[in-house]
Amino acid sequence: MGGNPDQKYDEVVLGRRSIRGYLDKPVPRELIEEIIGMAMRSPTSMNTQPWHFHVITGEPLDRIRKGNTENILAGVPDSREFRRGQPFEGKHRERQVGCAIQLFEAMGIERDDKEKRQDWVLRGFRQFDAPVCVIVTYDKELSGSDDTPFDCGAVTTALVNAAWSRGLGCVINSQGIMQSPVVREHAGIPDDQVIMKAVAMGWPDPDFPANAVKITRRSVDEAANFVGF
Q1: Residue 113 belongs to a domain
Q2: Domain CATH code at residue 202
Q3: H-helix or E-strand spanning residue 66
Q4: Model pTM score
Q5: Cα–Cα nearest to 62, from 144, 125, 135, 106
Q6: Average pLDDT over every residue of 15-30
């Protein structure tokens, strides 16, 4: 599972999946630097390059896991720093639920098994127990620009694809940054940054059932409207 530098672009894009279980194996800093360098070739509005990457591992990451988990279990309100919007409804809610069903079936989590369901949720707050977490932030002075989070989404997609091409797996998640004061403190993120997303990163565990799940995607016919062809 994962990729290698000889993969073609199609193989990376079509083979990549979200990885939620990792081997207890460190990731070399040099490899992460290479991956970030590749990701930063992604398009950016008017060359603003608003993104920053805070790469955390070891004891600081353990402190974030602990603080996130303790806060959520204590009922501390969500403090994520980007707009969440309203809860999903209709077809968007159906897709969200469909993803959960696929993952729960793979993990053998029954609908009424509250303990296992809670443990699954807490994995997100623990950054899925990955050896590395990359927090993507952007310059606060650009707040209010829709181009800025769009650019951060583009660079994050490039990041996970570049990681996959080098044999690493990732999962983009929001749970890991819901308790933003915890993340900001232990990752040393300055006040002039807005915390956008978390990316868990590491070597995929081939025996973790959820890692084999490829979430269903809409067809091109359903998603695209061609005009003038």
Answers
A1: no
A2: 3.40.109.10
A3: helix 58-73
A4: 0.92
A5: 125
A6: 96
